[in-house]
Amino acid sequence: MKYRRLGTTDLKVSVVGVGTWQFGGDWGKDFKQAEVDAILTQAKDLGINLIDTAECYGPDHLSESFIGDFLARNNRHDWVLASKFGHHWHTKWSNAWSVDDVRQQLEESLRALKTDYIDLYQFHSGSDEDFDNDDLWTMLDKQLQAGKIRNLGISIGSNKNIHQTAQATKRNAKAIQVVYNRLDQAPEAEVFPSCIEQDLGVLARVPLASGFLSGKYKPGVKFEDKVRKRREQADIDEQLKVVEQIKQTEVPEGVEMAQWALAWCLQNPAVTCVIPGCKSPEQVIANAKAAELDIVAEDHRLAW
Predict the structure, then answer these.
(1) Which of 144, 97, 135 is nearest to 117 (CA)?
(2) Rounded to the nearest 5°, which phi and psi values hold at 282?
(3) CA of 279: how far to CAs of 31, 106, 109, 115, 286, in Å?
(4) What is the pLDDT of residues 214-255, one digit of tens each?
(5) Domain range holding 110?
(6) Tell me, what DSSP letter sits at residue 216?
(7) Could you give phi then psi for residue 95, rounded to 5 degrees?
(8) Residue 43 — φ and ψ, nearest 5°?
(9) Bridge partners of 121?
């Protein structure tokens, strides 16, 4: 495993992390604690040290609760724990952006995670109006001083949101989380240059494009999970046609497409870490191999 400094924090994070939205049940599988334990144990064995979660990944902090149960039986200090705030999910998702709501979310996340601090606490895909609430950031700064939060971050909802990205340093945020993958390169235009200028860490979420870049799916596939089934079938098929072309023209022979896709993200100098989801220890092993691949960008082509 390889490690990179996360912005101006004192954290060194593995270039491949573990995304945990799937633990909440939205991706076609309901998890049990033993399955989560197996995934996180495999990650630890491979040198992965970053876990990314959120209060709304599953009802009543479900993803955080699975992680917290694991951490209670393992060494919490071995991990860089990233979570997010701004939403609730009980019977459905709802926004919760008031100062009191976010303060309560933090306490609930700490209880669910069975920890007294969160390494990176991220503003989660809120509007610019919610972001511009000075009282919210004042309260979060007090939580930093109290030691309940070690660092602040911003998970931008739009890949082009330069408003929030450009104000990161002003808000004492040290990292940006953004969707970035071979199919969606929008952050390269404005977001990444701003991150480099401010020396912000970058967590690339959805690096496999919701599984499209795993190489497992062909046009015509019908997704049954809650997230991907919302998309129009014509859009899915068109994206998968592009993936087929990429696989034939860009992925070197003998290299798994998923590993190539993760390594493709990591070759961008702005990116600190990719956080793919994984449903099994085997997928953790496959994702981790991306750290072994060296990619050199030459005129936007990839050479190995």
Answers:
(1) 144
(2) -65, -40
(3) 9, 26, 22, 24, 12
(4) 877 676 666 665 655 566 777 777 888 888 999 999 999 889
(5) 3-303
(6) -
(7) -80, 150
(8) -60, -45
(9) 83, 152
Distance, in Å, from the CA atom of 222 to the CA atom of 212, rounded to the nearest integer, reads 12
Exposure string over 123-135, b if 16+ CB within 10 A, otherwise e: bbbbeeebbeeee
Please choose, from the candidates 189, 175, 206, the residue with its C-alpha nearest in 3D space to the C-alpha of residue 272.
175
CA angle 192, 194, 198 (to 5 degrees): 115
Paired strand residues for 176: 154, 202
| C-alpha pair distances (Å), 160 with each of 184, 187, 195 | 11, 6, 12
CATH classification of the domain holding 133:
3.20.20.100
| Helix, strand, or coil (residue 140) | helix
Q: What is the DSSP letter of 203?
A: E
R_g of the chain, CA atoms, integer Å:
18
**pTM for this entry:** 0.91
* pLDDT at residue 209, as a whole number: 87
Domain count, the chain: 1
* pLDDT per residue as tens digits for the range 13-66: 999 999 998 888 765 788 999 999 999 999 999 999 999 999 988 888 899 999
Whether 163 and 155 have beta carbons less than 8 Å apart is answered as: no
Asked if residue 175 has pLDDT above 50, the reply is yes
What residue type is 151 in one-letter code? Answer: N
Other residues' Cβ atoms within 10 Å of the Cβ of residue 29: 12
- Mean model confidence pLDDT for the chain: 90
Q: CA 134, 201, 110: angle at the middle one, nearest 5?
A: 60
**Which residue type, as a one-letter code, is found at position 263?**
A
